[in-house]
Amino acid sequence: MESNVFEQMAKKYDTEERIELSKVIIKEVRSELSDRASKSLIDYGSGTGLIGLEVADLVDSVLLVDSSEQMLEVADAKISNKGITNAKVLSSDFTIGNPGLKADIVLLSLVLLHIPETKKILHELFEVLNDGGKLIIIDFDKNDKISHPKVHNGFLHDELEKVLAEVGFTSIDIKTFHHGKNIFMKKDASMFICTCMK
Fold first, then answer.
1. Which of 35, 52, 75, 115 is most buried, judged by most C-beta within 10 A?
2. d(CA 13, CA 70)
3. CA dihedral 30, 35, 41, 42 (to 10 degrees)
4. What whole-number distance in Å separates Cα of residue 97 and Cα of residue 88?
5. pLDDT digits (tens, 9 = 90+) for 77-113
6. CA–centroid distance for 129 within its chain
7. Which element (helix H / strand E) includes 94?
8. Residues 6 or more apart in contact with residue 137 via CB below 8 angstroms
9. Nearest to 109 by CA among 168, 64, 157, 61
């Protein structure tokens, strides 16, 4: 993933559209976390913390992990401004290697589509999770209207399920939960949530 694109976008990343879309995602993620008391969460590819910081009240700790320093600077400022005491940021790229992190929950929100090697990153995240840990993926359903050299045009549920199972995940559940206008590269698209266990 070329971080420089995100470095340039960082300061103006939280647009009205992104904030609106994040509210839809937050609602879905919160329902998945409601039973996860006393847990550690890593929001991988967290960007400015639009999702991760909004669920910090449901877990013991949140670590926002992103390869973009600028995105994390914005996130760090939010943590200070909102007085969130259980969240930290870390600059890291798991596609290069995991710095030995562990967590009970790993969240990927609209991140998988930016990572060329899907299976490799899922394997890294499997390693990050504690036994019995939960992976939550939010991403776009496969969309043939979209073609971009650096981005997957969404995912087919059965294909993603197969890869997750090959990596070792169990209790895989994938469902589409939102259809929106112009939400994926200015095209109408639908989003799914996928949960699975280590």
1. 52
2. 10
3. -50
4. 20
5. 999 999 999 999 999 999 888 888 999 999 999 999 9
6. 14
7. none
8. 108, 109, 112, 160, 193, 194, 195
9. 64
Instruction: Report the distance separating Cα 96 and Cα 100, nearest Å.
Output: 12
Alpha carbon of 125 to those of 4, 11, 93: distances in Å? 23, 28, 11
List the structure tokens of 147.
Answer: 């073609």
Burial of 186 per CB tally in 10 Å (0-12, 13-18, 19+): exposed
18-62 residue pLDDT tens: 889 999 999 999 999 977 567 999 999 999 999 999 999 999 999
Beta-carbon neighbour count of residue 168 at 10 Å?
A: 13
Strand partners of residue 43: 64, 107
- Residue 7's pLDDT is what? 65
Q: Which two tokens stand for residue 128?
A: 């990050």
Identity (one letter) of the amino acid at 60?
D
CA distance 121 to 115: 8
Residue with tokens 């470095």, as numbered in its chain: 7
Q: Give Rg (Cα) of the chain.
A: 16
Length of the chain: 198
